[in-house]
Amino acid sequence: MMVKVTLVTAEWCHFCPTAKQVWRELKEKYNFEYSEVDYDSPEGKKLVDEFSIVSVPTTIIDDQIAFVGVPDKNKASKTLESPV
Amino acid sequence: MYDLVIIGGGPAGLTAGIYAVRYGLDIVVLEKNVLPGQIAATDVVENYTGFTAISGPELMQRFKEHAETVGVKIESAEVYSIISDNSKKVVITDKGNFESKTVIIATGANPKKLGIPGEKEFIGKGVSYCATCDAPFYKGKTVMVIGGGESALTDALILSNVVKKVYIIHRRDKLRASKILQERVSKKSNIEIIWNTIAEEIQGKTGVENVVLRDLKRGDLYSIPVDGVFVYIGIQPNTDFVNVKKNNSGFILTNEKLETSVPGIYAAGDCRDTSIWQVVTAVADGAVAAVSAHEYIMDLELGEELHKKNNVDVDNVRRIKMSCKDNLDGISCLKICEDSTADDLQPIAEAIHALLGIPITIRSLNKRGIRMERGEVVDRDYTGPVLEEVLRSNKIIHTVPTEGPYKGKAVVVAPIRTSEKTVIGAVGVVDIVAALDILSMFKEYPGIFDEVETSKKKMQ
Lengths: 84, 460
Fold this sequence. Notes:
The complex is a heterodimer. Chain A is 35% helix and 25% strand. Chain A is an alpha+beta fold. Chain A has one domain (4-78): 3-Layer(aba) Sandwich (Glutaredoxin), CATH 3.40.30. In chain A, helix 1 (16-29) links the parallel strand 1 and strand 2. The longest helix of chain B has 32 residues, at 279-310. Chain B is of the alpha/beta class. The model of chain B has no long low-confidence stretch (mean pLDDT 84). The A-B interface holds A 10, 12-15, 17-18, 20-21, 39, 48, 52-56, 58, 65, 68-70, 73 and B 32-35, 40-41, 56-57, 76, 78, 94, 123-126, 128, 132-134, 136-138, 206-207, 228.
């Protein structure tokens, strides 16, 4: 099964562009399902409640909070499947 | 090879870039974040001259636009280490190696951690270091701010507009923050300051629920229920990757030119040991560091030219200069050859004078020479003190006067130039520390004194 990565972000969050960049760069190397969700969108609000999110960016991988803040690139790549 | 690699694209790094580009240097700024700088996490900046109030991210965006407009190249890369050779630095990154003549470290700092139980476990689950990032998640809740400086009060004020109640925990009975912030805080009915108190533990099940506090006056422990803890107890510089002299907290030590302990490497902004860490000082640092790097590069280029023309051992000259800093009062050189005219000696004198910027005399064994001061030849028939006497003593530290104007200083001799037929030694009066530095540099130096003796014998 493909790894599912969801990045919860906010418009005002200054770390979020860097977190997006980390996952987008990894997306070019690895094969995984990836989406970016604003915390204030209906989908985002659901995630904030479900995972008790109190910080952005938060990365959810396969229904668990994997990273809060900008993910470390090496740690992030380790959580992914084999390269494309 | 770049002239200058700037590590970090915050206010200090980008300003260094702007200045360096104006000096015509070939540069690159390496930055791992999309929107860098601690200032990007700041809600409103009210103490950067020219802007009554501007948001941190907007100010940072303007710096970036300014830098890019004048041609500062910014690359996304994370730096792992710097390898320093005499006149070349190699910056090792996740995007490959960058070779450069000089490096400015402007890597900034991150919030310092409390280091108490529960802190690490609850990062992102109630422990935060940035109110602008996380405040909206605490709407209607109770939070605690730890610290008493500018950042603590600024972020307490941001939180107070969103949450129900803010406790400020401060270990002293006075705040360090500016008066204007203290006044704003005192006007907020939902901010309560708890004095002379430190946090000992953060507790909770899946998220923060309680903070255990210690009253430093009474010594007793008690706890307050909160939903979030925001920590502002100072900053931790991002300097682990670089091997230069630092203070105990890791801040890089620099002189007024922002030179570090390694020639050609400079530090600017929040990563540097200084008295305040502000946007306005970071920006100023960037400018100073860029100008110093430019000077160093000019010296390098001058050195290369001189080396080609006169075979002057420029590296040794530079090492003496670095080692002596501003302590070298003057320098005397001796060209080991039978006869030289002032015209022969002048290019060499100019070379060394340009590099060291101190008065210099240079003579050949016929006891005729020239003296240069402030960029000009002041004496074309110099017959001053006899350097070979000092050289013949066969010691690098020749003497340490116990009285007179040079009391406590050392007269040192250091080899500056060698070629098959000539040796130039330098003698100068420096302080003891500089003398010892020179001694350690040259103790392995082969043959200079033998060459003096051989040349003398041949002449006799």
